[in-house]
Amino acid sequence: MKKTLEFRAHDGEIEDIALGPDNKVVTAGRDFQCCVWQQDQLVTGLRWHENLPGIPDKAYRYQACRDSGTFLGLGTVTGSVAIHIAFSLQRLYYVKEAHGIVVTDVAFVPESRPGRELLGGHEAALLSVAVDSRCKLHLLPSRRSLPVWLLLLLCAGLIVATILLLQLAFPGFL
Predict the structure, then answer these.
(1) Exposed end of the chain (fewer CB within 10 Å): N or C?
(2) Coil/strand/helix, residue 152
(3) How confident is the model at residue 20 (pLDDT cuts 50, 70, 90)?
(4) Which tens digit of pLDDT belongs to each residue from 107-157?
(5) Cross-strand pairs, 99
(6) pTM of the model
(7) 2.60.40.1220, 2.130.10.10, 3.40.50.720, 3.90.280.10: which CATH number matches 14-140?
(8) Where are the domains of the chain?
(9) Is the distance from CB of 93 to CB of 140 less than 8 angstroms?
(10) What is the C-alpha to C-alpha distance for residues 26 and 18, in angstroms, rounded to an integer?
(11) Which long-range contacts does 133-140 make (Cβ < 8 Å, 24+ apart)?
């Protein structure tokens, strides 16, 4: 094996590292940060004081991370579990103290046939393992979206309303 790249990712130890799509790397460090990297460039990151402002930095630390390509699963030293959108790190799911103590690893259920059966109607499933000798399954509910026909109807209504307003503002417009 040959080293191809070296850079300083965190202040202190790195707790976990995961490879993501498009050659992205996710790291969770003892400096209370979780970072997404492309080569040696920081793409985006999470800090506790920005992500969860009511919770002091020193009480929590990212311990485990996994990137499914669409989602980023995180576990903490206090037993909390979260799922974020991988490219924006917007939090979609969070369970405070899902485990009694340190989450040692997280893993997404694969998108194989048995995995899809386990998912049911949910968007993603994350397994978490902790020092409390428990393994828990976290299901991310499917996010609701507007049906295409309703979106087209709203667009048509917006166009008609714009034409009517223009006609009122500028008589003889049409």
Answers:
(1) N
(2) helix
(3) confident
(4) 998 878 888 888 888 888 999 999 999 999 999 988 777 778 888 899 999
(5) none
(6) 0.72
(7) 2.130.10.10
(8) 14-140, 146-173
(9) yes
(10) 5
(11) 134/99, 134/100, 136/81, 136/98, 136/99, 137/109, 138/81, 138/83, 138/93, 138/95, 138/98, 140/71, 140/83, 140/92, 140/93
| Rounded average pLDDT over 20-36 | 86
Tell me which of 75-84, 93-102, 164-173 is least confident.
Answer: 164-173
Candidates 71, 94, 95, 79; CA nearest to 129 is: 79
Token pair, residue 77, equals 């030293």
- Average pLDDT of span 152-169: 90
User: Are 101 and 118 within 8 A, CB to CB?
Assistant: no
Strands in 91-95's sheet, in edge-to-edge order, are: 62-67, 71-76, 81-85, 91-95
Alpha helices in 52-133 (DSSP H): 113-119
Query: Exposure of 127 by Cβ count < 10 A (0-12 exposed, 13-18 middle, 19+ buried)?
Result: middle
